[in-house]
Amino acid sequence: MTTKRRTLLLSIPALWLGARAAHAQQFPTKPIRYIVPVAAGGGSDFVGRTVGERWGALLGQTIVVDNIGGGGGVIAAQTTAKAPPDGYTLMQGYVATHGTSPATRRLSYDPVRDFTPIGMIGGTPNVLVVNASLPVSDLKSFIDHLQKNPGKLSYGSAGTGSLTQLVMELFKQQTGTFMLHVPYRGIAPAFTDLMGGQTQAMFPGLAAALPHIRSGRIKALAVTGQERQATLKDVPTLIEAGLQGFDALQWYGVVGPAGMPSPIVHHLNETLNTVLKAPDMTSKLASEAVEPMPMSPEQFGSYVKAEVVRWTALAKERKIQLDE
pLDDT tens-digit profile of 89-137? Predict the structure, then answer.
């Protein structure tokens, strides 16, 4: 091979990479569709709109939130996976679409292969709460009460296969205790029966639980996560209370269709992380008890894979499977 030809061949990848980098610098040139897999209103929608507004301003284009509810996020995920991988269709993936649902049911999409990870937004812990009249004051006394009353207590959840069920099943697994599962159609009716005494315990997200904790109608015993929460400073983490390695989050992140160009992915990730690191963003997301968790695309991709693996293993061990 001549020196001239070798030089030409070596220059082609550099030119190709340069062209892709230039394309990323121009991106975006039009509004970005941002699919939120729930109906308008509520915590997930709030997170998407709060982050999207600031993110769009930094990118120099409007981020248009498109709420696609239904099917536990399946319709939104399908829509995203089938979109052109050009960066103009993104989705707010979360623990259901990319964690618990793939673990508990057959889906028309693969949570890893069919998506490009962009970055993590953040997460909110789950909190173990009990009916206010239950004669327990902390995690230890609750576990003792369960052991002394086998089969007599029940717990509610937002539905079979939901994070609220899986976290409680993880708790039962690690403590060797038993409670009957009572699934509801959403978290609101589950709270109603918990406060009314029809069920005795639950593991909801912190944001949803706070108003009821503050009203005194339910008691908080412990939270998931590595650190105590500022809104519940007197409530220990489950790890702190003795359940080593016990962690779970209601998390939110950003994904796009599989095959997105790397320069665009990293441009989106860098700007997203800049938004999340702004001091006032922490206070904005605090209303939903969401703590920003900036990650690289690679870190977020690994996080999603780990979530699917851990919840799939638990669902299999606890025989939690939806026939859908």
Answer: 999 999 999 999 999 999 999 999 999 999 999 999 999 999 999 999 9
DSSP code string of 256-270: EETT--HHHHHHHHH
Cα(6)–Cα(161) distance, rounded to whole angstroms? Answer: 57
3-state secondary structure of 42: coil
Cβ partners under 8 Å of residue 16, min gap 6: none
Query: DSSP string of 45-61?
Result: HHHHHHHHHHHHHHHTS
Closest CA to 205 of 231, 180, 182, 179: 231
Tokens of 278: 């702004």
pTM: 0.89
Q: For residue range 254-275, list pLDDT tens digits in order.
A: 999 999 999 999 999 999 999 9
Instruction: Calculate the dihedral angle through the C-alpha atoms of 182, 185, 191, 196, rounding to the nearest 10 degrees.
Output: -60
Angle at 287 between CA 302 and CA 126, to 5 degrees: 50
Pair 108, 74: CB distance under 8 Å:
yes
- In the structure encoding, which two tokens stand for residue 99, read together? 């964690």
Which domains does the chain show, CATH number per domain? 16-123+251-317 (3.40.190.150), 127-232 (3.40.190.10)
